[in-house]
Design goal:
This protein has 303 residues and is of the alpha/beta class. It is 33% helix and 28% strand. It has helices at residues 43-50, 72-78, 94-104, 113-120, 136-148, 166-181, 193-196, 216-220, 235-243, 268-277, 292-301; strands at residues 3-14, 17-28, 32-36, 58-63, 66-67, 79-82, 154-158, 185-189, 201-206, 209-214, 227-231, 248-254, 257-262, 284-287. The strands form three sheets. It has a six-stranded mixed β-sheet with strand order 6-7-8-3-9-10, with helices on both faces. The longest helix has 16 residues, at 166-181. The protein starts with a strand and ends with a helix. The mean pLDDT is 92.
C-alpha cells in the first residue's frame, strides 16, 4: 500500500504523562481512515504531530512522503488540518475567512473553487454573515472549505462533527466520501460509531496506544464471546444488579439496552428470573449482535 501517512513507533510525552506510546499505522493514498477512541486516547496529540505543530519525543512519521520534523514546511503546504474546536475568525464573514486562508497559502480562491464548490454552495447564501454567528453545521462546512482552499493531498480532521446535529453530520460524511473519490487521503477521528462504519479502515485507540486496526467489519468479526442484550423497567438498577450476577462477566450500557458478556454456563432465562425475583419488571435477555463498541470494551479489558 502506498502510504499517504506512515507513523512508526510515534511517541509523545508531557512530563510524566505519555500521550502517545509507540503508535504505528499507515493511511493509504486516497483512503478514508478513522481514529476511534475516548477523550484522552491521544488522538489530538497525534493530529498535532502529523500537522507539524508538535515534535515527537521518539519514533517518526511521514506525511505525503515527507518527514514531520525535517520537512515540516513542505508538509504544511500539502496538509489541510481541521482541529476539534472551531478555529476560524468569528468576526470575519464567511467569504472573508476563505479569502484570508487563500492568501495565507498564497493561492487564489477561484483557482481551487472547483474543489470546495459542492461544500461552499451550501453556505454561500450566508457569505456575508460573520463566522461566529453561523450554526454548528455551517461552521463545520466553512472550516472544511478553509482546510481545502489550497488543494491539500492529505486532510486531517479531529472530531469534526462533535456537537453537530445528525443531519449535518450525515451531510459532512457525504462530503468526505466525495473528497476521497477525488484522491484526497483523509484521517479523521470520531466518537460516533455510525461514522466509524463509513471509514474504509479504523484504528481503535486508548491511553495513547493503538489496540487494533482493521476494516469496521473486520473489527466486529474479532468479537467471539457470547453477547446478550438486557432491558427492563429500571435500567440503572438493572445494570448494577446484572453486574453482581455470577453468570455475567461484564455488563455495560449500549443504546437503549445493556450489553452483557456471558460467563461459562450462562442461562438467559435463569438471569431473567433472578432479576425479576429482585423486583425488576419487564426484564428481557436476548442474544445480541456485536458492534464496534463491544470490541473496544473487550480490547480495553485485556489491555
Amino acid at each position: 500500500m502506498d502510504a499517504a501517512i506512515k507513523a512508526d513507533a510515534l511517541t509523545k510525552r508531557y512530563g510524566a504523562l505519555t500521550a502517545l506510546d509507540c503508535v504505528s499505522f499507515e493511511v493509504g493514498r486516497g483512503e478514508l481512515f478513522g481514529l476511534i477512541g475516548p477523550d484522552g486516547a491521544g488522538k489530538t496529540t497525534l493530529f498535532r504531530l502529523l500537522a507539524t505543530l508538535l515534535n515527537p519525543d521518539a519514533g517518526s512519521a511521514r506525511v505525503d512522503g515527507l518527514d514531520i520534523v525535517a520537512d515540516y514546511r513542505k508538509i504544511r503546504e500539502r496538509v489541510g488540518y481541521m482541529p476539534g474546536r472551531f478555529s476560524l475568525y468569528p468576526d470575519l464573514s464567511v467569504e472573508e475567512n476563505l479569502a484570508f486562508f487563500a492568501a495565507l497559502f498564497g493561492v487564489e480562491m477561484r483557482a481551487n473553487y472547483d474543489l470546495i464548490a459542492p461544500i461552499y454552495s451550501r453556505i454561500e447564501p450566508f457569505r456575508t454573515r460573520r463566522a461566529g454567528k453561523l450554526s454548528g453545521g455551517m461552521k463545520q462546512k466553512l472550516a472544511l472549505c478553509c482546510a481545502l482552499i489550497h488543494r491539500p493531498s492529505v486532510l486531517l480532521l479531529d472530531e469534526p462533527t462533535t456537537g453537530v446535529d445528525a443531519v449535518s453530520r450525515s451531510e459532512f460524511w457525504d462530503m468526505l466520501s466525495e473528497l476521497k473519490n477525488k484522491g484526497i487521503s483523509i484521517l479523521v477521528s470520531t466518537p460516533y460509531m455510525d461514522e466509524a462504519r463509513r471509514c474504509e479502515r479504523i484504528a481503535l485507540c486508548n491511553n495513547g496506544k493503538v489496540l487494533g486496526i482493521d476494516t469496521p467489519q473486520g473489527i466486529v468479526a474479532r468479537f467471539d464471546e457470547p453477547l446478550f442484550a438486557l432491558s427492563g423497567d429500571d435500567m440503572y438498577g438493572l445494570l448494577l444488579a446484572a453486574r453482581r450476577s455470577a453468570g455475567v462477566r461484564e455488563c455495560y450500557p449500549f443504546g437503549e439496552a445493556h450489553h452483557l458478556i456471558a460467563a461459562p454456563g450462562f442461562d438467559a432465562g435463569e438471569l431473567a428470573r433472578e432479576l425479576a425475583g429482585q423486583g425488576f419488571r419487564d426484564v428481557t435477555v436476548r442474544p445480541a449482535d456485536a458492534g464496534i463498541e463491544d470490541v473496544f470494551i473487550k480490547l480495553m479489558r485485556h489491555e
